[in-house]
Write a structure and sequence with these properties.
Blueprint: H1 19-33, H2 41-62, H3 69-76, H4 84-105, H5 117-128, E1 137-139, E2 146-148, E3 160-161, E4 164-165, H6 172-182, H7 190-207, H8 214-228, H9 238-244, H10 246-255, H11 272-296, H12 299-315, H13 323-333, E5 335-336, H14 341-345, H15 349-361, E6 365-366, E7 374-376, H16 380-386
Antiparallel strand pairs: 1-2, 3-4, 5-7, 6-7
Helix pairs in contact: 1-7, 1-11, 2-4, 2-9, 3-4, 4-5, 4-8, 5-8, 6-7, 7-8, 7-11, 9-10, 9-11, 10-11, 12-13
Length: 394
């Protein structure tokens, strides 16, 4: 029995032009462009670092790996727990953040088209080459043996995802070639490109090109594609929304795997209606997350939350007096020279240095060098107060 399969099995690649989807795209573009417009660029970079960790947390949570934000924070500082299983999850989280950081830099792969086969393989390679050995082994589709996941290489055996038998391994190259061709951005209108972010997310998971890591790669891929379209700014994460609506996400992914449901359901092999439903859901999640981040990044309210927190910490003796003056300066100016601490606080130089050093030591300010200018940072203990509901309440 032949295992040859035509690439038409995953058609349609995009839902039909639809007013409802078009309205969602227009709304998303407009809201994404105004996100955090009043914040200093240096501050937005620091917030992007925080969002990168958040994205990692929620993407791994979708896969059933609940690595506490505090453990992720420790991993970024190379502080790993002794427990092997938890340590492996810390390493996994750190790998995810490092790969997204590379994507956010924008110049690592030097591949213009994020939907290219090379780009997808490279995302997988960069992620899996950083994982510990324990996380590189998975069971094959009939659970008769364990197979090793090779970083950046397509699977050489078959897989079943839920009720979906993914394309046979011998056909992966041609399915991925069709994927790259269908979602090439220069072939689409501006609206179609945004809809394609959602559609390609499903179709990449439908192809399931790797033995493991397909979900994480798909979400990193979507992040890269949104960034390519100047919608993803690094200040919001679709993974947070997908994790918070995990049941809907899983249900609609599986529904879009189904074959066409009658003559009124498009002309492709797969359901046109179900693909539209998934795209609608994905775009709604994106808008919801942009709205959420817009609400917590409103400058006056964000600074007010920081001030209230610092007042409580100073009253408890955990932060020195006049700490807020330095944090406020970093908030508005983006960064300031260490020598300016005395003028900002009104203290003498020696006393101002004590305040500054404590804020750096506790993670409220950070610097690239020991003597360089400092900028605002977000220690994990303060995140829930400064950014309400960013993570689930423990």
């Amino acid at each position: 029995m032949t295992k040859s399969e035509p690439v038409s099995l995953m058609e349609p690649m995009l839902p039909q032009e639809d007013g409802e989807l078009n309205d969602l795209v227009v709304d998303l573009i407009a809201k994404a462009k105004t996100l955090a417009g009043g914040l200093n660029p240096s501050l937005t970079n620091s917030i992007s670092d925080l969002v990168r960790s958040m994205n990692c947390y929620y993407s791994n949570l979708i896969e059933g790996h609940n690595t506490h934000p505090r453990d992720i924070d420790r991993a970024l500082n190379n502080d790993f727990v002794d427990d092997t299983e938890k340590r492996d999850l810390q390493l996994e989280a750190k790998a995810h953040i490092e790969v997204q950081s590379i994507i956010d830099q924008g110049d690592f792969w030097q591949i213009a088209n994020p939907v290219s086969v090379d780009f997808v393989k490279r995302v997988h390679h960069e992620f899996y080459q950083l994982l510990p050995e324990n996380l590189l082994w998975v069971e094959n589709f009939d659970r008769t043996k364990r197979v090793k996941v090779i970083a950046g290489e397509f699977r050489d055996g078959d897989v079943v995802v839920g009720r979906h038998l993914a394309p046979h391994a011998v056909n992966l190259d041609k399915f991925m070639a069709r994927f790259e061709q269908a979602y090439s951005l220069n072939r689409m209108s501006k609206v179609q490109r945004v809809v394609a972010v959602a559609a390609s997310h499903h179709r990449l998971l439908w192809i399931h090109p790797f033995y493991d890591g397909n979900g994480r790669v798909a979400r990193l891929f979507s992040h890269a594609l949104l960034k390519q379209l100047d919608i993803g700014s690094g200040l919001w994460s679709v993974s947070r929304g997908l994790a918070r609506r995990h049941s809907d996400y899983k249900f609609l992914l599986e529904a879009a795997d189904l074959p066409r449901q009658g003559d009124l359901d498009g002309r492709g092999s797969l359901s046109q209606r179900a693909l539209k439903d998934f795209c609608k859901f994905f775009l709604e999640v994106c808008i919801d997350q942009v709205d959420y981040m817009s609400s917590i990044l409103e400058p006056k309210e964000l600074l007010r939350r920081i001030e209230l927190y610092v007042q409580d910490e100073m009253a408890a003796g955990r932060l020195p007096k006049r700490s807020f003056a330095l944090l406020r300066e970093a908030f508005y100016q983006g960064e300031f020279a260490r020598g300016e601490a005395a003028e900002i606080t009104g203290y003498k130089v020696a006393q101002a240095r004590v305040v500054l050093s404590q804020l750096v030591a506790k993670g409220f300010l950070k610097s690239d060098t020991s003597k360089g200018p400092v900028r605002l940072a977000f220690p994990i203990d303060a995140v829930e107060r400064w950014f309400p509901q960013l993570y689930p309440i423990a």
